[in-house]
Sequence to fold (223 residues):
Amino acid sequence: ETGVTQTPRHLVMGMTNKKSLKCEQHLGHNAMYWYKQSAKKPLELMFVYNFKEQTENNSVPSRFSPECPNSSHLFLHLHTLQPEDSALYLCASSAGDVTYEQYFGPGTRLTVT
Amino acid sequence: EDQVTQSPEALRLQEGESSSLNCSYTVSGLRGLFWYRQDPGKGPEFLFTLYSAGEEKEKERLKATLTKKESFLHITAPKPEDSATYLCAVLTDSWGKLQFGAGTQVVVTP
Fold:
């Protein structure tokens, strides 16, 4: 595997389900990010882990919960989602210090029914 | 409040017809400006980073420039494979947080 991988690529879940999105980076980076991309809207940064420290984004609902067990893996735990949460969820990584170019995975297309 | 605005929203070009995309920004302290390309159903692909006014970067038919208030992405003699949405983003803190514009959708027809 190379670059940034995400699983699953597609996910359909009911509003009462609990699921998790997984991201893995093979670039030796120290920072990882979750973004939400909805139709006709700019990418929205949800969470940042830089050297394993998390910054909070106060506008993200608590039904989204991130987890970063090490610098290569990132999870987004989902529970009791709403239909408006349907979107493309993108993971990215960067070196996290001198250079900040972020490299993105292919995304998970989430549909909440 | 930091803002990133891209124009136009959409651009339709004939193959070989050069054009420019604009990214204007209002940020308290610019630490870098990034350009990405995104194809439908895929994640954004990194193109360029610009750090200071006057800086220019080139890659094949693309050239990015930066001033104190805006950046331009020039597409010279585009080909159909240049069709994509082009995103710009600004870096505003040491955590690596990027604020993205809404993008310009470019369609190049043969």
